[in-house]
Every structure is written in structure tokens, then in C-alpha cells.
Give the backbone structure.
Amino acid sequence: DQQVKQNSPSLSVQEGRISILNCDYTNSMFDYFLWYKKYPAEGPTFLISISSIKDKNEDGRFTVFLNKSAKHLSLHIVPSQPGDSAVYFCAASRTNTGNQFYFGTGTSLTVIP
Amino acid sequence: NAGVMQNPRHLVRRRGQEARLRCSPMKGHSHVYWYRQLPEEGLKFMVYLQKENIIDESGMPKERFSAEFPKEGPSILRIQQVVRGDSAAYFCASSLTGDTEAFFGQGTRLTVV
């Protein structure tokens, strides 16, 4: 039962352009969402998070948008850089119950120089 | 300030043997999580522990798997009588509290031959 879904397994973007990674969830009880970035043979690295009381959070080139009514979140990277090439996982949890994140299956982003 | 340390990085076991995976959380972190990533899949939550306590083990297989986080020393994920299907990357994460972002280790890649 996949409660967090990333329907695009891969995405290619030209350097300097915007990368948009999407994520959908089914559990309306989720109230904390995160994006992690993962390089091969390494553990996931925390990128950015958003609480359900917000609809947008920005950190440098990374912005996460949350649409609660649609149960959808997205990660925007602008401008995209070759070093951004990695697998991106979105994750969701219910706060106050611990970090038992539900992860999506990941989207592999390739930024073409 | 060392990050989350997992060892070994790679572990090869024959079917029927035991696998022990170790995780030292970040300094000051008392919340530990174990996740498993099967090939071509996202990360799946296994267990959430605080010092000497299992808080949530809803993601743990019912048999052969166990986890502990003693008062002193690392957290241990133990898999008894391993089978080929246990081959996966096992990631440990730690957090300061139960509702702040979790930081992941580099993972242990278990191969059962």
C-alpha cells in the first residue's frame, strides 16, 4: 500500500532550467513532508521540508509547494545544475508520532550540461 | 560532528547465517530509525527506537528480524537465518526529537548468497 507516490521515475532537464519533481500522497493525516536527495551508494540527504500549515517553503534554489486539497507536493529547483543530478525522494509523516516516514519510490533527475 | 555512522558498509552472508547491522546516531540524538530499500523500490520504514525502547516496529517482518538500541552503544538490527530476499540496502537515521528532520547514514548493503 503505497501512501506516497512519485509517478515519474526519471526526469531530464537542461542546465539552468527549472526542474519540477512531483509527489502525491493518499493519507490526509500526514502533516509533515520532506524531500531527500540521494546519490548512488550513499544515504539520503535531507533537502527541504514543509509543514501542512504552510503551502510553500523556500531555501535557496529549492522551493517546495504543498497543495493539501489535492494531496500533492512538488519540489522546484531553479536554476538546475549538473550537481543536482541524483535520485529525489519525497517523504511524509505525522508529527508527534516520530519520523516513521513514508517514502515515495524516487525520481531520478539528470541535469544535462 | 560526525554524522550517522553505519557499519559495515557491505555485508555478505550465506543463506541461514545471521546478519548484524550497526548504527551509531549523531551525537545527542536519541531517536533512531531503520529503513530498508529493496532493489528498484523506495525506502520502507522498519522500526523506530529510543534508548532502550522500541517505539514502533510496525514495519518489521514478524519473524527473523529484531532491533535494539541499548543504553550504551549503537543500535543493532539483527536478521537471523537470512534468505536471498533479505538482500537490500539498510539505512539508519537519527533525529534529535521525534518530529525534527532525520539524518541518514550511508547504509549497509546486505547481500545474501
Remarks:
- The mean pLDDT of chain B is 92.
- The longest strand of chain B covers residues 43-50.
